[in-house]
Amino acid sequence: MAEIIVNLDKVAVNLSGRVIFQEISWEIQANQRVGLVGPNGAGKSTLMKLIAGECPAEAGNIFRAPGLTWARLEQEPALTEARTVMQEALTAVPELTAVETRLSHLEIQMADPAIYENAVALERVMAQHGRALDDYERLNGPRYESLVKEALNRVGLTPEHWHTPIAHLSGGQKKLVLLARLIVRQPTLLLLDEPDNHLDVPAKEDLEKLLNNYSGGVVIISHDRYLLDEVATHIAELENGRLTIYPGNYTAYTTERELRRLRQQQLYQAQQKEIARIEAAIARFELWASLVVDERHIRQARSRRKMLDNMDKIDKVTDARRMTLNLNGWRGSNKVMELINVSKTLPDGRVLWHGLNLTLWHGDRVGLVGPNGAGKSMLLKQLLTPEAVMQGVIKIGPSIKIGYYAQEQETLNMANTPLQEVRQAAPLSEGDAVAFLTKFLFTYGQVNGPITTLSGGERSRLQLAKLVLTRPNLLLLDEPTNNLDIASIEVLEQTLAEFVGTILVISHDRYFLDQAVDRVVALDHGELHEYIGGYTDYIESIGSG
User: Which of 98, 224, 406, 483 qualifies as a cystine partner to 457, CB 3.0-4.6 A?
Assistant: First the structure.
């Protein structure tokens, strides 16, 4: 039987008086790789903090196997910006620094004549030094630096990154530094909260290899369905305060989930018919008893009422609320956009791209891919101001209206409330604006609160809301799936499939690209290369090439 390393038994968590979940039970076994999924706000990060002992349980019990070690990767990296990658990674085991300091102090003491000329004092200091050396060995002190370098390489941070200041790293690279620190410690259980966010495809592939080869257990929160397919041995779904475990990867989970929901709905309907039959019988017996005052009819009515009360009720299948997204679009120019010999030179003289040529036609769905740092986001921004291009020409069709989704959410005025933001985007009454925002899952309190207090997913939905109001027929989307939960990504995919217009989208979400685009344009080493089909077709093309 597989070893149970963590067991949650009917645990409950309340935050600021709000019930996050209650009576959650979960067994995590050694060497399982569990994908924790569910809508934004369901409590996934809270559940992970609970397992890590960083969040108290209001009720229930938590068992952790004796000797269990764990480490949690947070959603938002907190690192010392002035340190280099190597300096930060070397802080993985702070106990080791303390031991090294103690060893240094004891060695200074042993060199002191007052100590080495005093046999008793020298013996005492040498005993302390021996214990410190044992601690140093236990913490892998002699091999520590090589372990750190190995961990950095495993997460894709090769020697050319080691002396880069943390302040110069992308958000994804900062997460990789944190992940390397966790790997050095080799905990029994890794708890990873969206480790793949902002990573490019090569980095995601490195992450998949690392997790598949990890010797301990892993719980991972991710919205990347491709990654969950490659890594997960189980899926844990947290929805409506309930946790349900499914064996297999994400694809197996979606299939089994639909089958379970279908069976549950069939059982619910059958039970509702039985309940209606029993209630009708109760009504008949109560009517007869009232007409003839027959004790036998009264007992029969009571018996059936008791049967009804003791029946285990089957819940009706309910779906979590999803946002409503209608990007209708409209037909504009047949030739939507054309890039002719477009080049970009940075102020430091580095050529970011050179001689780019690309034509977008009405109805095109194009995915723009490439490694981080290739200049994809900068190219998308350049398309917003074609007149500012310094080298080459960008032509936009005369009846084209652009809708832009920014990866860093700079299209939002953080000083506004969501209500102010949408009313500035379109002439809506306050009531209509509130009703509009509720379609994007905003509560009344959030509508009137500052945008700065919203989560990343909520800000993403607000950007999508503004896109709807601008009524574009050309969508320029920069990582639109970042921060969105899977349900919202699926809504976005369906909406883009029905969009009457043209789409150019940057994404590292491979599953999303397979659903949303029919042409891939790769920007790498300053050049564009086109491939017909979705992401999988693109990978097959470059693999065979």
Answer: 483
Q: What are phi and psi of 368, to 5 degrees?
A: -100, 115
Nearest to 333 by CA among 393, 397, 285, 273: 397
**What are the pLDDT digits (tens) for 505-525?**
999 899 999 999 999 999 988
Q: Is 317 exposed, middle or buried (0-12, 13-18, 19+ CB in 10 A)?
A: middle
Please give the Cα distance from 313 to 180 (Å, whole number).
48
Q: Output Rg (C-alpha) for the chain, integer angstroms.
A: 30
Q: Encoding tokens for residue 502?
A: 């043209």
Which tens digit of pLDDT belongs to each residue from 81-92?
Answer: 889 999 998 888
Which contacts of 383-388 are long-range, i.e. CB under 8 A and separated by 24 or more positions?
383/337, 383/476, 383/504, 384/476
- Mean of per-residue pLDDT scores for the chain: 88
Contacts of 435 (CB under 8 A, 6+ apart): none
* Burial status of residue 127 (CB atoms within 10 A of its CB: 0-12, 13-18, 19 or more): exposed
CA–CA–CA angle 320, 326, 327 (5° rounding): 135
Distance CA(195)–CA(222), nearest Å, equals 7
- Written as one string, the DSSP assignment of 107-139 is HHHHTSHHHHT-HHHHHHHHHHHHHHHHHHHHT
Question: In this predicted model, what pLDDT tens digit does every residue of 124-137 receive, in sequence order?
Answer: 888 988 898 888 88
- Position of tokens 């067994």? 27
Instruction: Check whether 465 has a pLDDT greater than 90.
Output: yes
**Terminus-to-terminus CA distance in the chain, angstroms?**
47
How far apart, in Å, are the Cα atoms of 217 and each of 31, 51, 208, 234, 445? 4, 13, 14, 11, 39
Residue that has been written with the tokens 């068992």 in this structure: 63
- What digits encode the pLDDT tens for the residues 147-161? 889 889 888 888 988
Using DSSP bridges, classify how beta strands 4-15 and 189-193 pair: parallel, antiparallel or unpaired: unpaired
Q: How many CA atoms lie within 13 A of 137 on its CB side?
A: 6
What beta strand segments (E) does 132-198 contain?
Answer: 189-193
Bridge partners (DSSP) of residue 530 are 521
CB 183, CB 199: distance < 8 Å: no
Statement: 335-544 belongs to CATH 3.30.70.360: no
The C-alpha atoms of residue 59 and residue 62 are separated, in whole angstroms, by 10
Q: What's the CA gap between 182 and 186, in Å, rounded? A: 7
How far apart CA 423 and CA 444 sit, in angstroms, is 15
Domain 4-91+142-250 classification at class level: alpha beta
Q: What's the pTM value of the predicted model, to 2 decimals?
A: 0.79
